[in-house]
Amino acid sequence: MSSIKSIAIIGLGYVGLPIALLASKKGFNVIGIDTDIKKIKSLASNKSYIGDVADDEIIHTKASFTTDATKVSEVDAVIICVPTPVSAEKIPDLGPVRGAVSAIAPHIKKETLVVVESTINPGVCDEVVIPLLEKLSGKKVGIDVYLAHCPERINPGDPKWNVSNINRVVGANSKLELDMAVELYKKIIDAEIKPMGTIKEAEAVKIVENSFRNINIAFVNELAMSFHKLGINLENVIDGAATKPFAFIPHHPGCGVGGHCIPVDPYYLIEYAHNHGFEHEFLRLASNINESMPRFTVDLLIEALNEVGLPLKDTKVTLLGMSYKANVGDGRESPAHVIRDLLVEAETNLTIYDPYTPEDSTTNSLNEALAGATAVVIATGHDEFKNITPSLLKKNGNLVLIDGRNILRSQKEAFKNNSIIYTGIGI
Length: 427
Hints:
By secondary structure, the chain is an alpha/beta fold. It has helices spanning 16-25, 37-44, 55-60, 95-104, 124-137, 175-188, 199-230, 234-241, 265-274, 281-291, 293-307, 335-345, 366-370, 390-395, 412-417; strands at residues 6-10, 29-33, 64-66, 77-80, 113-116, 146-149, 168-172, 193-195, 316-320, 349-353, 375-378, 400-403, 421-424. Helix 15 (412-417) links the parallel strand 12 (400-403) and strand 13. The mean pLDDT is 96.
């Protein structure tokens, strides 16, 4: 178990690159492998393409990076960190996992430990990874090569919690494989490594974590739609409920959920259970509610414009924020994209600004974005947008503000006093 000295990381995205850099810092010989030649060229130029990874970390790492999957023959362990998306029809797509296993299987040497970090539903390791690994490698899993699952945990943009200090869980089909994986991660991660009873339990952990958040967010989002009609400030109610010192965890409403986990992971369990004769009605309903929030946000805009006697069509609207989360440049599954598409479909005169995703922006600054807009929609809670004031909007002739993240709710009365219609989500 102590013989693991070298690791190959398959997939150099938001999960793979940080774990590759961390493992290298901890003294492992690391080879990062990705099929995207642009990423490899960027790393060769000491340039990071991930907000949480500074260029300086690339400059000083001893890890090497390549597109050559045959390099796995040189390492003692392989960690798979490829994405697990869903299709437009919300069907899980295991293509990247299958592709990664297919790429490494013919080249891994005996006694290599393979760890899947990609978020997968229960059964994927047993029903997909192991058969494919054995078929293409000619080796028996558990005897010639070893397999474990350690679902990734990372929180982009979080200054406190990162890949090095978040607790992890590990599962495997034998004590030997479990012990190998636990010892490996104890050498990489400065946090608790919890062994699970089975590999399926480990697979289920990540799905349950994100389904829990998805359900609770859906609950407050449904309350937001209800309380909008009832004239109750939901955020104040949540603040009140949060004074209870036990049995309540505050979640907050918004214009939708995004990222690669919360809006995606529940569908892996929904589909897997469906194929085994069980229907997750609660999970599906929660996802449907959260996916309805971009439309609800646009409906709030239409309602506010009606108050000033204007239609949505041809009205100059500024959309602030395209990333799914505040202060990061990650647009994966962002509800802002849906809001944008709805506004384009409605034939608005649309301006977009996001300081973290300039490729999505049509302007270069907040002031430029606000200038002359009739209505402003905040879809992402970037810190820059928290500086918006009633006087700034009045100066730019903005009549309507739809706060999709409730980041300016403390100024609600001030906006009203400046003849600006302010509407948040549930407030």
